[in-house]
Amino acid sequence: MNILKLKEFNNEHIVYLYQPEGTGGYGEIAYVFADKEVKILKRAEESSSWYANHALKKIKECVKDNNLPIEIINAWY
To answer: Quick check: pTM over 0.70?
Structure first.
């Protein structure tokens, strides 16, 4: 499970913080409009790429659906 929180939204990009299992430090993931790509800006402390990949997938889905909530609980199990 990840907790995703909207950090920044402007004409260039959207940035979400993600926190694996709701504990520890946050990582940052951005969707860049010009590239139409999601990028990891900072990996969350003590997390595997598995959590980051799930956050990437969820943010892509939200952008595609034009649904950008302030906070998301992203559970996949």
So the answer is: yes
